[in-house]
Amino acid sequence: MTNLGRRRLIDRLMRRLAALAAGLVVLPLVVIFGFLLYQGGTAVNLDFFTQLPKPVGEPGGGMVNAIVGSLVLLGLAGLLGLPAGILAGLYLAESRDRRLTWLVRFLADVLNGVPSIVIGIFAYTVVVLPMRGFSALAGGIALAIIMIPVVLRTTEEMVRLVPASLREAALALGIPEWKVILRVVVPTARAGMVTGAMVAIARIAGETAPLLFTAFGNRFWHQGLDEPIAALPLQIFAYAIAPYDDWHRQAWAGALVLIALVFLVSLVARFATRRPGGA
Amino acid sequence: MADGIRVLSLSAWFGSQRVLRNVFVNIAPNEVTAIIGPSGCGKSTFIRCLNRMHEVVPGARADGRVLLNGEDVYAPGTDPVTIRRRIGMVFQKPNPFPTMSVFDNVAAGLRLAGVRNRAALHEAVERALGQAALWDEVKDSLGKSGASLSGGQQQRLCIARALAVGPEVLLMDEPSSALDPIATAKIEELILELKKDLMVVIVTHNMQQAARVADATGFFLLGELVEFARTREIFTSPRDKRTEDYITGRFG
Fold first, then answer.
1. Taking 90 as the threshold, does the pLDDT of residue B113 lie above it?
2. Which one of A34, A73, A110, A272 has the largest count of C-beta atoms within 10 Å of its C-beta?
3. Which residues pair with B219 in a beta bridge?
4. Measured between CA atoms, how close is A101 to chain B, in angstroms?
5. Mutant choice from B81, B90, B142, B170 vs A, greatest count of A C-beta within 10 A
6. Quick check: A168 and B112 CB within 8 A?
7. Of the candidates A80, A66, A275, A102, the residue with the CA atom closest to the CA atom of residue A197
8. Which of B93, B99, B112 sits opposite A175 (nearest CB)?
9. Mean pLDDT (whole number) for A192-197
10. Does the complex come out with an ipTM higher than 0.85?
11. d(Cα A217, Cα A202) in Å, to the nearest integer?
């Protein structure tokens, strides 16, 4: 009996500890979000989403150019990084060449660990210097390089999770291997692949360092993809270190919008990964 | 023309391990042939060699000749894809494509082979589902996910999927070992029905099943075809001592 009592006590203690740990994990996010709402909530208004930044000393204005700029950069990065990452991931999962796939996988992991500022310098050297100017394109390329290993590894893992029995069923129907991959394997893994892509986009949405000397930032509308472009993280950085209270408030608001953007992307990913049941 | 499958000196390996040794056998057309034997004796490998599915596994290879109505399945330059269209396969666990509806599952083989004509697809799907004795149960829910069916229905869906392509032979790898007795009985009934249109080769762990459905039976042991004869003979007067030991339950 005493033994049972002791076990119950330990059980209750462990449950509480586990619940506490779970709470601690969520706490930082809740605190950050609450703090951002408190600090930046008042500055998020219609102007913020529709106006360009005002000249120094003039209050008001918004960050519409940075919001659009961030979306343009994410779009560019996605356009360059997603196809490369997805196709390479498929290759890793399907190829029978063990040595080559091992090498690619290893290098992708190394690339994943390269600090983002280093990738920024790389893009500066190979894109900005030859083009003789900062540009949206350079920023997009830097972000794409950061997202490729993330997309590649999640795609590979998801494709590997597709049961061999499905592959065999399709092959046994006399379907050529490439069609089996495209029409049976990929659709089965699609939900996971979409999540991987979303996670990668969320990851690069907040990247600042690689944009410092590629996209560079811009207080006005960008004039083309070969011109400097504003981005939320850059704008937040510029405003946060400026000596004006109004700018500080706007920096907080920008951070809030950025987090909301990431939150939205994660939410879309959650919905996309729900398996279509029934019909 | 239709002289069935002749297997000449077939051997198979996984890496350096030899799992089939010099198998010679003639499988008659319009019959059901059962393959029995203890686990790991090579019976699954044997039927997977018939439609060149064995080589799908990394490191696996086969050697020998398999003549399907006189044509060598392993002749140089033969595309395994065309062979698999002529020799269909049903697996141990029902494996409908989870992202496809009942209709799309059955249509998959034809569609992915390039058939676009909707009327032709509909006709083929209805015919295959009818052959698999599943049409009456699913005709009102063709749009539902294939994974929403019961286990027995899923297996008949897989049979329909294999039949839709119009194969000359249907290979079945323990098709009812994951099913309950009622679903098993339905599959067996179906096999006897299918015999009218095509050859069936079935691997089974269940000797009663072999006795119920098969005209001819082969007994494999350690990668060798020990005995191949009419089913009645195998079960009543086996020639080989090892066959007798196995069917009387002395091992395996």
1. no
2. A73
3. B36, B227
4. 15
5. B81
6. no
7. A80
8. B112
9. 89
10. yes
11. 20
Sign of the dihedral defined by the CA atoms of residues B214, B219, B225, B228, in that order: negative
- Residue A194 distance to chain B (closest CA, Å): 15
Query: B interface toward A at CB cutoff 8 Å?
Result: 51, 53, 56, 58, 81-86, 88-89, 91, 93, 95, 97-99, 108-109, 112-113, 143-145, 148, 158, 161-162, 165
Model confidence at A31, pLDDT cuts 50, 70, 90, reads very high
More confident site: A56 or A135: A135
List of domains in chain A = 46-50+59-272 (1.10.3720.10)
Closest approach of B101 to chain A, Cα-based (Å): 8
Residue with token string 């294939």? B146
How many beta-carbon contacts under 8 Å exist across A and B?
76
Task: Tell me the pLDDT band of A56, cut-offs 50, 70 and 90.
Answer: confident
pLDDT at A279: 31
Report the residue from B91, B143, B145 with minimal CB separation from A169: B91
Name the residue among B171, B175, B170, B205 with its Cα closest to residue B188: B175
Q: How far is B110 from chain A (nearest CA, A)?
A: 9
**Who contacts A248 (Cβ-Cβ below 8 Å, separation ≥6)?**
A239, A240, A242
Q: Break chain B down into helix, strand, coil percent, rounded to 5.
A: 40, 25, 35
Spatial CA neighbour of B23 closest among B240, B246, B220: B220
pLDDT > 50? residue B24: yes
- CB-CB under 8 Å, B81 with A184: no
Phi/psi of residue B148, each to 5°?
-85, -5
pLDDT above 90 for B187? yes
Q: How far is B100 from chain A (nearest CA, A)?
A: 9
Residue for token pair 């009645």: B232
User: Are residues B97 and B146 in contact, defined by beta-carbon separation less than 8 angstroms?
Assistant: yes
Q: Do B112 and A163 touch (CB under 8 A)?
A: no
- pTM comes to 0.82
The per-residue pLDDT for range A93-120, each reduced to its tens digit, is: 988 888 999 999 999 999 999 999 999 9
What pLDDT, on the 0 to 100 scale, is given for residue B250? 80
pLDDT for position A119: 95
User: Quick one: which of B111, B147, B50 has its CA closest to A179?
Assistant: B111
- Which amino acid is present at B41? C
Residue A182 near chain B (CB below 8 Å): no
Residue B182 pLDDT exceeds 50: yes
CA angle B100, A179, B73 (to 5 degrees): 110
Tell me if A172 and B97 make a contact (CB, 8 A cut-off).
no
- Residue A171 exposed, middle or buried by CB count within 10 Å (0-12, 13-18, 19+): buried
Helix then strand then coil, % of chain A, to nearest 5: 75, 0, 20
A167 neighbors A180 (Cβ within 8 angstroms): yes
Q: What is the mean pLDDT of residues B28-46?
A: 93
